[in-house]
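Subject: two folds for Thursday's group meeting

Dear M.,

Sorry for the delay on this. The cluster queue was jammed most of the week, so I only got both jobs back this morning. I'm pasting them in the order they finished. Each block is the input sequence followed by the predicted structure tokens. Could you check whether the formatting survives your parser before we put anything on slides? The first protein is the one we discussed after the seminar.
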Amino acid sequence: MYDFPQLQAAHDQLWSVLAERLKEAGVSPVPSRLTRNLSHRQTWMHPGLLFGQACEYPVAKSFEQRLRIVATPRYNAPGCTDALYRSAVVARAAEPAGSLEELRDRRCVMNEPDSNSGMNLFRAALAPLAGGGRFFQSVQWSGSHRASLALVAAGEADVTAVDCVTFAHLQRLDPRLISQLRVVDWTPASPCLPYVTSCHTGRTVLEALRFAIEGVFVDRALAPARELLLLEGVDLSPDTTFRRVRALELDAQQWRYPVLL
């Protein structure tokens, strides 16, 4: 989910070692290369998915019967705590608002309607303030966090919510873009984007995946790649009930703010 062009070599390195460990464990077939010619939704729906990464909220809402949670990575980025992450509420650098409340009636842009970081976490932050009615002047969808940030920087929107790992990556990879923006506030937290496999993956392969992932996270030779990817650890016993993202959705409904608008 964070496969920016500058990070692809590091992802390839981690996959190469992970794939080798899976083969040694007797898993077959194991792709030699990562698949990059499918959209994230096509990947999540693919019955042959061996290993991927997903956003918890759309999984909970639409893909729960198609995917199994393997593990949850921990990231070293501002806004992350253990295996939890938050979204940064971002506006232009010159935006005078100093709080979420002061962003009322601004133009909002988000990546996707069912994004956890772009919508669900942001909705949870806004729900107590919205009073059961419209909060923003308008809401539009960009298709990606990076596109949302670009629209805000260009003055075509005023505010967006971007997951903290994406924001941390872009601070290094696109400093010119980030220099035009600032973080106004942070959303509530939920589990980081989990590693997933197809629902057709059996218990033996699932355990082999977890064992292989554990090895990748302690392999000293992979430390530079993990550092570049902001990976600092992994939770191999993740919550598979999506309890936190569902609770945030329920909280917003109880505040009479079921739809971010």
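Second protein, same layout:
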Amino acid sequence: MNKGLFLLLFPFFLSCAGQDIFPDLGGNLSSPLTIAIDTTNARAYLNNSNSRVEYDWEQGSVQALDLTNPVAPTLLKTGLTKSYSGQMVLDSVNSRLLVSNRFSAAASSDADRILSLNISNPSATNFLEVTEVAADRDPFGVAYDSTNNRLLVASLNNKLQYYDLGAASLSATSLALDRALDDGTTLTTSNASRVAVLGNQAFVSRLAGGVLVINLSEIGDSSKNPVDYYLSDIHGPRGLVAEGSYLYAPSAQVESGRIVYRLMVVKLDQITADNTNTTVIVKNTTNTPALYEAKVAIGDDPQEVVLNGTHVFVSNQGDDTVSVVKRDGHTLEKTFTVGDQPFGMGLYTVGPTTYLYVCNVRSNTVSIIDVSGTAVTASYP
């Protein structure tokens, strides 16, 4: 449920205060949205956002799952949180799970939060205990900036926020994304959605369209413009990921009068860090013909993207599938049919086998796939 719908229902919730309209979430799954895999400890953390309000509207949860048997996860503990949480980052050094959360009811509110969950010891009473950290309005996408030991958070309030993970306490610094472009226009509403990091570059997708490329080494320097590029012909991107020589970003393209969805494979040698730009440089197929290595056909309404050394995986909410794209040659290899409205994904490799975990928001399940196969291997719960 988006915040607009939440606002419509909020007076109804208040008018029924004291009545148990919705049951408690407890250990149930409700709109499982994202998953973080702790390969070292054979654990997964599953975010139940409760964004469809199937249980008490105030409640969300994070479940810790034991992956000793990868195709039959077992529940270690459920930690209750507020609802409407988003992406997650494992901070292994500080034994915490960092989760974006958009619980605030008012659209005008600039006060949301990052949730910090203790993951140090599954046997301890404070395992999955939550500490709240202030964030800007509507945070969703998060990523770890390993070069600078920072958490990056994409905010719908036209900002990229960053947190020093080495500090004694977490607090946000903001980078405004409403910047002037070199074509004479200005991005006034960036609505940052997801963020990916590679080295000293961050890539931020905008709900309104396009991807911003940010020079992380310039953040905090008032004499610099950290926003280097605007990739203008990637339309409606959500998740994205960068590794090696490429950025992978889904896009809704208009071809022959109809919308088709493609995984845009951006060549990173075309968007190297620029330390001199005062305005944001616009890049697209027209003015930079060599910008894209490939544009691969994928499923309907793509959402999140993950990769390993050989393949890129894209969850497609519109047709309940996952597209598997070979990184060698960038061709579609196969498609898995999963549960209803797939969204977040995580990869876990045990010996020669790699498993893909896919969160199905509407069917309240997690599809478990041996990626060497051609069909879903198992399902949780």
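Two things I noticed about the second structure. The longest strand covers residues 246-255. The CA atoms of residues 265 and 293 lie 5 Å apart.

Cheers,
T.
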